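Supplementary Methods S3. Input chains for the assembly prediction are listed below.
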Amino acid sequence: MQVLAAGGDLAQLTASGLFHGASYGALGAGFALILGVTTRFHFAYSLTYTFTAYAAYSLTAEAGLPFWPAALLGVLAGTVLGVLLELLVYRRVAARSGGDGMMPVFVASLGVGVAGIALLQLVWGSQSQPYYGPSIEPLRAFGASFVNLDVYQAATSVVLVLGLAAALRYTGLGRAVRATRGNPGLAAAQGIDVRTVYLVCFAAGSFIAGVCALWYGLQYTVDPAMGTRPGIYAIVVAFLAGTSASPLRVLLVGLGVGLAEAWSGLWLSLQWTQTTVFVLLVGYLVIRAAGPLLPRRLVGKGA
Amino acid sequence: MSLWLFYLVQMAVFAGFALSLNLLLGYAGQLSAGHAGFAALGGYTVAYLATAQEWAFLPALAAGAAVAGLAGLLIGLPALRLSGEYLILLTIAFTLALLGVIATFPELGGTLGITDLSGLAIFGWHLDDQADWLVVALAVAALTFALCRRLGESPFGRVLRALREDPEATRAHGKNVYAAKLTVFAITSALAGLVGGVSTASLSLASPGLYALDLSMTVIAMVILGGAGNLWGAVLGGALLTLIQPLLRQVLGLDSAQSALAQSAVYGTLIVAVMLLRPQGLLPERGARGGKAAPTTQPPPAGRAPAETDPADQALRRAAWEEAQVVLRTSGVGKRFRGITAAEGLDLELREGTITALIGPNGAGKTTVFNLLTGAIAPDAGSVELAGRDLVGRRPDEIAGLGLVRTFQDVRLPQRLTCLENVMLGVQEQAGEHVTRLFTPGSGVARREAEVRAKAREWLEFVGMAEFADVPAGALSYGQSKLVSLARALATEARVLLLDEPASGIDTAWVERMLELIEDVRRQGRTVCIVEHNLHVVSRLADDVYFMELGRITAHGTVAELTASPRLAEAYFGTV
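Predicted structure tokens for the full assembly:
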């Protein structure tokens, strides 16, 4: 964000857009994996994000662990939290509500998110915490200035997305995930344990969110509101790309959103660039709503 | 004392927020996270107009509600055409964008907000202290309650409760689902703006922090805790959750920052606990409290002895069929889905006062024909004419209004509506489904509602389900629900009825009853088209039969003619 405020030229904004966009893309891919496969509208995605950063921060700053083991344990803790939410909350709420339970699960997820962020603040306080890891070095390329962490962050995001895409494509578990996304009933009939697949999706999505959160914490600070914007962007990017889209497509959409947001800084003041994602979303919805495509479920079955 | 007065004002304010969201979420089943945004629009409009423009309070309040309502309309236009998650998403994005933008206007006080809002009055009554604001907030909460009650407990509200559970079936019975959702969303957005205006004025402050997304979450928590679909539940939820903060401060001695956090933790935990343990909330929706138990699971006694198919009778009926006028005609209707042909070159005729059957193997496209005729799917080619009027390109609810109504193979009765309400949903031209008429004295809403009720009772009696009038549809057996769905279709008074497997999946005793009813419907001069697998049913009912394979009509004639075809006998009938 400080990059954006500092420079007005295209190269700088493009670099900033790509760095942010890579993280939006990775977060979007994680969210889309969860929503697309499990149909859980996991609004508390931003909670697992924030929780990971706090866990890693406190293991370093408070428990005195070295950075890398603490970071790893933090990401694992966030992953476990994501899995527990599915296991203890969403699965039960969906089972109680019958149907796909989209709305009840979303409401429960909202509750988890609100309560979780408040609890984080009661434990660690509301103020921002400085989080230190690899030393920060300024870099300059193509007329834009940035720091080494920007590059690490973007590279990690791309690697995570590529890894997810490869896992979905080439591993047996990945094929089970895709089969479940296509038709859970059929997947179950073929002997796939759908409930385990759901847990795997929550684990993978939460892992990606956690890694992104660590970079964010290192670049800025660890604070209770840090997950709000990334969480919303993840959701928007996932919807723009299509929740059953491949991770690579989600990454491209994330990069596009990052660039659109950064470039809007050429014409708009900083606060107004926040509206970019809203404008993109409205534009997308208008096109979808006006489109002649009817939801597939209107098509009758049986005959 | 003044602190408790302050909390009483807050209780009234949050009751207002929760009531308006409950109409949207509880009745219409649409979840919005935009209450904070709409409240901000109302609050900022009031604060700006009352300070910079020196407007009087009431006109400023009305303007605040209008601005919020307009914003709701604009957001709803794209979002409500799509599935529920898009409304959630767009309202979240709207609230965040709005709060970001508001802070950039110096006229609106930037991040501090408008802080000099004071000296408000209503017709010379100066609203100086919290006691005055309590009166205003209670009045607005009462007004909101009255409005939501009028809307929710009206024929319009019945449409909302039906579309909450099954938008497609609601549309198929002549209700414009999109318009109803848009209307209720705009109204509840305006109400959020109204209550937001009062909240802002009572605090003498409009700031971005007041309307953070947390406000939306709080209101959602209130509705869920109190009971979605129950207006008193919203009042209870609003009051209880508002009281949590003072309790935390007074009883646990937490400071204001800690108590705000503890409050959020309690809200969030309560939402999760309610969703897990008592999803219906503290005060469940009327009618969802189990309702009346179903009186009996036995089929109603048949009116007369089961009639066997009499060949002479069939010949007479075929002669009548030859004479009858064509009511519905399709020519060359086709539909492809991503290269797969679902229907092609369909030429169908339905004749007045006769029964036509559509038969064929599974996957032949029979239900697709119903979807194409009723506008659920738009054909790529061909025309559909009902009594000379072209139906292609019209919405399903328009087509139902023109007199072509279908039932569904999987019945699709909104489970939480009673049988009577389900059938009332079928009756067309209800004054009370128009919001403007609900608030126009002398527009005959009550009189028409009594007529609709009486008519629906008659149709329930016709299918032999009168004693189930007050039973929620969810408590019915499959056979019973098929009868109620037939009554609902009949109540539309449509000239042409498309019945999708009316006799499948039900006990033999029910089949007999169903067949008699369909014969009665023909006797009334209505035109019926059935999709059916059971050849016994087809040969007893049908005056004319179309045979479909792979999306095409491959044979047409009487049952006797079709069953005599060696090819069809081998391909289809032989397996029945």
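Residues 26-243 of chain A form one domain. The longest strand of chain A covers residues 138-141.
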